[in-house]
Amino acid sequence: MSPLAVALELPEAASGDLRELDYQLARRCVAGDETAWREMVDRYGRLVYSVCLAAGLAPPEAEDVCREVMLSALHGLRSYGGCRLSTWLYRITRRRIADFLRSSRRREGPAGLPGDSTFPAVRAEREARFKGWVEPTCEYERVRQELARLEEPERSVMVAFHIAEVPVREIASDIGLPENTVKSHLRRARLKLRRRLGGIE
Questions:
Q1: Using one digit for the tens of pLDDT, what is the confidence trace for 40-60?
Q2: Per-domain residue ranges for the chain?
């Protein structure tokens, strides 16, 4: 598993045919199997939450969006097309994050991500309040900060490929770029992260 995946606390991949396992899990959920739904939330909830955090949402905002994603997934499982559940949930998550950022709840919030020129400086009292959540020297926070510093589309491509496990072909289709361009963005982003993070294995 990649250092990025470990730092962002991704669930371990199951062995065997993941698509078939995902399809069976989705069928059980549609059939009303409550255990299957809990299994889906346990398996993919952290992934959805990690994507929200990587998009720059604060932990309480990420929790709200994560709940909305899982509810959307529950209601939309009948239209699930048999791709990897992680890919399907990543797409829902991207839409819900965009909805959240456009919503009235977010109007007074900052635009962009930390490190972007559009992101306002954090007031000292707010910084002090959030400081205790994650120790600034820990590897997790370093990876998140460096990921947030990546420019688009490198940041989105990295999140999609390494966190949501979306194949390059699907990323290219989603963002309207050739596959080789997506691979180039991945390569450049990895090199930047490797150079900036240095000591993290």
A1: 999 899 989 988 888 888 889
A2: 3-197
Question: Do the beta carbons of residue 24 and residue 30 sit within 8 Å?
Answer: no
| Spatial distance between the Cα atoms of 58 and 177, rounded to a whole number of angstroms | 29
Indicate the SS3 state at residue 36.
Answer: helix
C-alpha 180/C-alpha 184 separation (Å) is 6
pTM over 0.70: no
Alpha carbons within 13 A on the beta-carbon side of 135: 3
- Banded model confidence at residue 140, pLDDT cuts 50, 70, 90: low
- What's the DSSP call for residue 167? -
Which has the closest alpha carbon to 177: 148, 153, 155? 153
| Structure confidence by residue, pLDDT tens digits, 8-48 | 333 344 434 777 888 888 889 888 899 999 999 998 999 89
CATH class of 3-197: mainly alpha
Tell me the C-alpha distance between 155 and 200, whole Å: 19
Task: Judge contact between 49 and 66, C-beta under 8 A.
Answer: yes
